[in-house]
Amino acid sequence: MKKLTLITLAILLAGCSAHNLNPQAQRVRVTNNEPGKECKFLGDITGSQGNFFTGGWTSNSNLETGARNDLKNQAANMGGNVVSIITQRAGQTGGMYDGSGSSEQTNVTLTGNVYHCPEA
Fold first, then answer.
1. Spans of the chain, pLDDT less than 70
2. The pLDDT of residue 53
3. What span, in angstroms and rounded, lies between the C-alpha atoms of 23 and 21?
4. End-to-end CA distance of the chain
5. Which residues are within 8 A (CB) of 2 and not within 5 positions of it... i.e. 6 or more apart?
6. Strands of 29-31's sheet, edge to edge?
7. Is the pTM for the entire model greater than 0.85?
8. What is the separation of C-alpha 43 from the centre of its chain, rounded to a whole number of angstroms?
9. How far apart are CA 61 and CA 75, in angstroms?
């Protein structure tokens, strides 16, 4: 039983940290603007961090950073170096009991268009 508790705790703690940024994704730029015509459109992607189970234990900062890192990792895997954000959402989970309740941010989802632009 002790081992199961330790394994569960390790899984929960791992779920609380932001997704890691891969080395090749460090040069990917995320922007709210569409890049110029010299850039080639590669496709769209969705990056996310969190879920209803671990999201409540994860800081809002780690949810945001993890979603952005997920987005940048995917863009780099596609050969992109710029992501133009289309949507940004923060999910909340909560409940009502006997007339009172609460909610908390449990996930962040970012959707963007991926481009490969000439290096400046």
1. 1-19, 50-61, 90-106, 120
2. 47
3. 6
4. 57
5. none
6. 29-31, 82-97, 100-116, 40-50
7. no
8. 18
9. 21
